[in-house]
Amino acid sequence: MNHNVLITGGAGFIGSHVVRLFVTNYPEYHIYNLDILSYAGNLDNLTDLKNNENYTFIKGDICDNELIKNIFKKYKISRVIHLAAESHVDRSITDPLSFATTNVMGTLNLLQVAKESWQANYINKLFYHISTDEVYGSLGHDGLFSENSKYDPHSPYAASKASSDHFVRAFADTYGMPTVISNCSNNYGSYQFPEKLIPLFINNIVNNKPLPVYGKGENVRDWLFVNDHARAIDVIFHDGKLGDTYNIGGFNEWKNIDLIKVMIKTVDRLLGREEGTSDKLITYVTDRAGHDFRYAIDSTKLKDDLGWEPSLQFEEGIEKTVTWYLENTVWLKQVTSGKYQEYYQKMYN
Ligand code: NAD
Ligand code: TYD
Fold first, then answer.
1. Cα separation of 210 and 270, whole Å?
2. What is the pLDDT of residues 298-332, one digit of tens each?
């Protein structure tokens, strides 16, 4: 089966891994990567693919109705994997409107154009929406999010993703659009922009900068290696049941402060520093507003129905990730120049 697949947000962190996996593993598909190249999107994440014949990059905005119509028409798009989004909770607290524009209106625009272009001929078509576990809100010390957990978003980011999920389901229910949604836990790995916890802290440890731990560092996240997320997306894209939702998680919960200590230990060891050298960088700062206490995903359905499981142990994943950031200093320098410094000053000083 040939597909013309539109992947949105393919120059971002997760998107670049998904694009690479699809371009490499499915030479019979043509992959169109649409990305606006915001601060988080970077073509340096994909330099290895630029000569692949089954890959085309398009710079543009998912909110641009004319552009999306033209892409669907010109390239006969039959399937969509939609990752483009504003993705950082802290930014959503200072600028919620841009999250509504991109995550809600952008998703709605894609759905509407897909509906108009496919004209109810849904054979072999698919709209696959990539979402987050944050739509389910916050857990206490016990329990896990399942596909049936109620939506209870707290941050503007989570609210915008929840809204986009609802629109995707509305298009399935109202127009019969073939859709699937997956909600994943926190990802980590190569090419993640250093505003999220893991790459930010690795970069700060390397540069002997304070590590701003929100609150008491007791919040819990469930971490999944990004390549395992990309593998799950592959499986769901090909075998997911239309209209269904799949939760993706690592069964890998860490209290922030414990995870930070692992990062410190790993970076110090790989840099040949004495153990404990960077412990002094830990700095407790004012808590994030509305900070969700705990996320944890039950991904049993994905395992039972489609046979997916995380492939990496966390210790191996974090070692690979730290090693990647230590080896890719040019990439890191580029993404942390200019505007990043302004963001950092505003956010942490
Ligand atoms: P990211 O911020 O690294 O990348 C987002 C990409 O979208 C960037 O390349 C950016 O340029 C692009 N983009 C933003 N606005 C756009 C627009 N208007 N038009 C076209 N492109 C636009 O994000 P990520 O961490 O790779 O997340 C990707 C998706 O996965 C998001 O939908 C996010 O909600 C979801 N998700 C992320 C995580 C995580 O831990 N990072 C976990 C679960 C789900
Ligand atoms: P983050 O990587 O922003 O992901 P999310 O908020 O989507 O889960 O943050 C992960 C956890 O780390 C979260 O509990 C907030 C915390 N955190 C800090 O303590 N300090 C920081 O500077 C950042 C960015 C996050």
1. 19
2. 999 999 999 999 999 999 999 999 999 999 999 99
